[in-house]
Amino acid sequence: MKRILIVLFSCLILTFVLASCANRSEDQSSIFEFSHNNQKFEIISLYEEVLQYTAQIKSDSSLDNKVVYNEKVIMPFYNLAKGKKLEVDGYHPFFAPTLLEQRLEDNTNELLRNQKQINELIQKAIVTSAEWISGGDKTIFVLPFNPDQPSIINDMEGVSGGTLNENVILLLLDPSFSEEALKYTVAHEYNHAIAMESGGRDYSILSFVIMEGKADSFAGILYPEKKVAWLEPMSAEAEQIVLDEIKGHRGSPTAVLFGDLFDGNYNNGIPRWANYKIGYTIMQSFLTNNPDMTIDEWTRLHYTEIVQGSQYGDFLQ
């Protein structure tokens, strides 16, 4: 009898969630489309999927959290992308179930209430970016930030992102997000997407480093007043350590070194976010040496040419 009541309760919760989705206003549609010049854009919010996940996992504590998350969030996202013929194979690091289901549900509902404003901010940042460099059509997915990581949310001002390929950007949002941080992040990821249109990525450490340097240089041009934590300068000693590490593995897609550069390895003298810091430093050196090159040109330029045109050309010797 207890099991029957649990099942009935679960069905009632899911029915309420689905009914809420059906009764949403046009402003709360999960897909928002717009165009600018010859580019088409879609913003797809994954709020409904997350709310169905939290509703089901809260209704029955015996359910496997990972299984439910995969069923309610990951697979709908993957199938939606597949239906639109979008490649999203690199999504795995951005999706994870939570141990704070109620917090995630509350956060998602708050994002949903502010969806129109969020979409407008993203649209404005996309259009601003596209005015500088145009390219192919883009799809932007918006996923609520996992509340299990409050320190990361705080450090990133409530917003993070990833570019899965030249057509797909994924944004992670917490209700605490800073509007300026959101616009900067959109510009950063948009630059990645445009750079990927030209190929030239060989998945080496140096390639990833220069990609980040390009993106932060672009976002910094659009939003010069925005200061981001990951670009705080390194000491000269730390910079040399990072340069030596990258040079020793410049052609390798080593996950260990990538993790050290991103998260920091204080035993080895590598600061957190070193990949962003050194990438930005190299890119700024290149821009100083090549002041007449347009943003579109250097965004699409192969990373080896960026390095050669900077003061760090010995990387390739």
Automatic annotation (TrEMBL):
Q: Where is the DUF2268 domain?
A: 119-307
The protein's UniProt keywords, in alphabetical order, are: Signal
Leader sequence range is 1-19
Report the superkingdom from the record.
Bacteria
Looking at the keywords, is Translocase present?
A: no
State the protein's name: DUF2268 domain-containing protein
Species source reads Paenibacillus oryzae
